[in-house]
Amino acid sequence: MGRPLAVWLTLAVLVALMAWPHQGVAAERVYIDITQPNFVRLPIAVPDLQEADSSTQGLGTLLASVVANDLDLSGLFRVLDPKGFLGPEAAPGVTAAEIRFDRWRRGGAEFLVRGRCARSSTGLRTEFRLYDVVAQRLVVGKIYEGRREDARIMAHRFANEILAALTGEAGMFDTQIAFVQAKDGSKEIFLMDIDGENLKRVTGDGSTALSPAWSPDGRQLAYVSYFEGTPRLYAVDLFSGTRRTLCAYAGLNISPAWRPDGEALAVTLSKDGNPDIYLVDRNGRVLQRLAASWAIDVSPSWSPDGTRLAYVSAETGNPQIYVLDVATGKKERLTYHGKYNTAPSWSPKGDWIAYSGMDKGRNNIYIIRPDGSEIRQLTHGEGDNEAPTWSPDGRMIAFSSTRQGGRSAVWVMLYNGEGVKRLTRLPGEQTLPDWSPRIRR
């Protein structure tokens, strides 16, 4: 399997070396209230970082483009066209004393990212600063050191800092998305950054691997594989590459979903005849049966507090989504709109459940309140849209879609259905995305 998720290993050497003056004061102000319905994207300029010499040639452009793409992806910023930075306002200058804020303001910028990069003993040293153009003040600044190949990670890190400083909420730009890559008759699990870059292969069995599911600490990935003939559940440690068998009971072993505490998983097993949802510990030992009916019960998704479980059952004749109270065993049908609703995904804030529902012969993404109220349709027949998964801040949804060219790819959008962007552009098809949590370090 090589070195899966090596990106997380390198993060340990990226050290923020400097806390800039007045940073604490600036952090007290929340510039963006993302809860306001009339929110307007903030205009921000992200010109190329300065390069110390020929050894860093091209990195200034790369670093700026990663930050700009992250900010655009967030839906909170209007990144200004870099072609407008070719005048005097783009002259060298990183400190506040060197910057002509009035010129940036006339160019439409309310915020400005400046920085520089240079060769260091570890490979690369990058310096980033975010300025409030209107107030002519520094908001946040960081220096990172690490390997040259970690340049993208440094940029993602600073985009996180920008989001935290301006919204009061941590960013998620250094998270990853697992997905299934179908090509040449096999299906393997891959990982990528949230901008579609830094592709890593997790499985390589030449068989069928499905349903990747991140553990809450981001260290393990549970998944289904047929490489030993029958569908079994496995877990791979993404730091060491070690794979172990989770469940290999007779019949089906599918649909893994880690409980939020990381100590157990909800899975679908047919060991007792009917495919029902069971609770198993980290080693696959059955603790209890959670959901059972005469029909197939699959696709569990935990509420953030671990007290409830959304899942799919066809007990009324067609697949519908139900919510189970784990303590009492009481279940309630959640979806009544449409005859075919699948793939529930509970938002990290607990306020929505995303799912895929069939409408006029097409699968679309919907969100619904956990009490069954306030259904919102996010996609509208642009191909088939399936398998929604939430970003750890609850503001974005990744999903698979056939909207371009008829082949499934992984896309992302804001939770209101806006800002749809394609992430994967690979041969074959990419399906079943699962967004990682924020990694605890």
UniProtKB/TrEMBL annotation:
The principal location of this protein is periplasm
- What InterPro entries has UniProt attached to this entry? 6-blade_b-propeller_TolB-like (IPR011042), Tol-Pal_TolB (IPR014167), TolB_N (IPR007195), WD40 (IPR011659)
* Gene Ontology terms: biological process: protein import
Subcellular location field:
Periplasm
**Residues of the TolB N-terminal domain:** 31-137
**Annotated signal peptide:** 1-26
For this UniProt record, the keywords arranged alphabetically read as follows: Periplasm, Signal
An example of a Gene Ontology cellular component annotation for this protein is: periplasmic space
Q: Does the keyword Signal apply?
A: yes
For this chain, the family text in UniProt reads: Belongs to the TolB family.
- How is this protein named in the record? TolB protein
> From which source organism is this entry?
Desulfacinum hydrothermale DSM 13146
Lineage, highest ranks first: Bacteria, Pseudomonadati, Thermodesulfobacteriota, Syntrophobacteria, Syntrophobacterales
